[in-house]
Amino acid sequence: MNKKGQSIYGLIVFLIFFIAVWAFWFGEFLQTWGANAIEQNAMTGIEAMLYANLNVVVFIALLIFIYISIKIGV
Asked: What is the number of structural domains in the chain?
């Protein structure tokens, strides 16, 4: 596999772009979508908790992505 063009800098640029989009647009969308899903479906329990905290779920997924990217060796 050709990894000449891939470096840690590409990962950093991707992360900066992703976090900026998430902070300015995607985070509010997730919050609204989760609140609507809970209200319209009358959810309770763990399912409602996960919908209410979708931004935390995305953050954990981002941390897992960073860990895997570093372990693979970008």
From this structure: 1
